[in-house]
Amino acid sequence: MTITYPVLVNAVITGLLMGGFYAALSVGATVAFGLLDIVNIAHPTFAVIGAYTVLVLNRSFGIDPILAGLLLTPVFYGAGTTLFRVYYHFFERRGDEPMRGLAFFFGLMFIAEVVLIMLFGVDFRYVRAPYVTTTLNFGSIALPLRLAVPFAGSLVMLAALELFLKKSFVGHAIVAVAQDPFALKLVAVSPVRIKRIAFGIACASAALAGAFVIVIEPLQPAIGRDFIGRVFAICVFGGLGSLPGTLIAAISLGLIENLATIFIGASWSPAVAFGVLLATLAWRPSGLFGRG
Amino acid sequence: MSTWRFLAIAVGVAVAAFAVSAWLDLDYFFFAGYVILQYVVLAIAWNILGGYVGYMNLGVSAFFALGAYTTVALETALKLPLPATIPAAGVVAGVVGLGMGYLTLRFKGIFFAIATLAFAIVAETFITNWDYVGGSAGAFLLHSQRGPWFGSYIEYLFLLMLVLATLAVTVARGVERSWLGYGLTAIRDDEEAAEASGVPTLRLKLFATGLSGALMGMAGAPLPYYVSFLEPASAFNLSYAVTTIAMPMIGGTKTWLGPLIGALLLATVQQVAAVTMSSEINLLVVGVLLVGFVMFAPNGVVGWFRRG
Predict the structure, then answer these.
(1) What ipTM was assigned to the predicted interfaces of this complex?
(2) How much is the pTM?
(3) Which of A36, A181, B196, B226 is least surrounded, with the fewest CB atoms within 10 Å of its CB?
């Protein structure tokens, strides 16, 4: 296949836009993994749950998918804090087995998938919104809005989160809990409460990421699994817990994936994330922006 | 009890089990028994790394499916019979396990777990794109009605799986009671302390990963003949991984007895439930049991009878 200039440019644009979305999908996982030491492998599946809820809201009430995702964030926040209570009670408080926590989230992921299959079947589902089917064309360069809108939404979400972590008291406390939970106690802040809030926020981000998922591509219950490799490759490559690192890692992965698609073939793109993950672990395990 | 004596007893139990089932001579019994024994092998294999060392392999389906596809590839290329492809499947899956382990085991166990999960997707992509073994369309592996030695073909498959299960139990118990097992347990309890006191942690972890992967691959090797039609989506099904991990969690992860009990219990319940319930509910039960035991009974069924 000859690779023409427009093909290359379009691949770069698609990679860039998908990368922004990957960042939105990964940010919750990187907050939980990097700052709270909770490896929530069910995070992409939570986004899929969000996507199906968005689908129902969109189909029954005609609500715009991204608005629906935004409306869901408080619900997901509440669910996240409850889940953290359970996780804390059964795993973290015992302090012995991080592996059991992993098995817990693995089981949750599987249960969620099976329940989604029982409720919605395995058919691909779509949402209705004006921008889902529109593509802007600039000469030979195409800008599909189904990618551009989630990209913009992801950037706003990441910026808001970064501002929250850097400027607010609770945000500072979340960063601090990763570094020194004991010091937090000295200023009369409960580390457990801060972790609960942070995990709630991580889950809330999954609701919005879910809205982006269903705008970008047709939805199917097992789709979350395809994202696990990408999400954790981004977490590790970006340096756990760093938001700018997450964005850069996500966009790099989007670009590499899309360039691999035109140079090697689309069917190999799932292997790219795995390659990035292994390469990062081999050469720079602390990631791009890791604290080392 | 020495490993040899244990092997003699295990073989005795296996011969008795086979004698009873051959006397019953019900094809359904062989079909169900095959699956139960396959999970005995998978659960015991998983536990060698997951239970003894505490490193969680979430990509069980990949190792299992690689074993199955080794059989497909060798049958297509060389017409090798099953008793020859089973060891080959063990070698392939074991080497893959070693490779993955070499790249990820130097870090916290969490990275190994994530890498195995991501690896499952990559391996599936690889097989889906490899037309020689059927690609996404799948592969048919036809077998004769009769087994090569005696009885029906399914009886033959059942016998092979029984041999594998006996082997797996004996190997796991042997490892557990040797210096290897003590080293592995030391890593689980405190890896840094183990390393500091001279336990070759990386080498032991690699050994456990390779052995565990090899046994999983061997468990998958007869699958193409069992299902007759093998395609990537079903061979790499996540439910193999969830079911396999649930079994040691239910039985208990500290000894070989836990996964054995967990596999016998859960796989039998599943075989009975498969007749009465939809497959989704069946899978849901497995997921709920996994989460439930992890939360409420960290030492599994064995833990209820043993103190400490």
Answers:
(1) 0.84
(2) 0.87
(3) B196
